[in-house]
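An instance noted here:
***
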Amino acid sequence: MKVNILSIEYIVNNVNEKDRKGDMGEADFLNKAITIYKHDNKQEENKTLLHEIIECMNHEFNIKLKHEQIEKLEDAIYDTWRRNDLKELFE
């Protein structure tokens, strides 16, 4: 899977949870890659992907958000998306 962030393409890798380094995911800005560690809860995997995308945006656009702010944005965006079934915006 690939994610395009304003013309910057990141490869998304899903890897086994046992390979995890303590985080649910990570962004590699140099190699343009996002790693998501697989686990039983698909919702948490999706939230982790959203979190890493926000991390990439923060880096690429030098927004300078703190990690706590990124976590709050992740929660707010994901919750709003789910409660309002906004997937139709992109169909």
Notes: The chain has a mean pLDDT of 91.
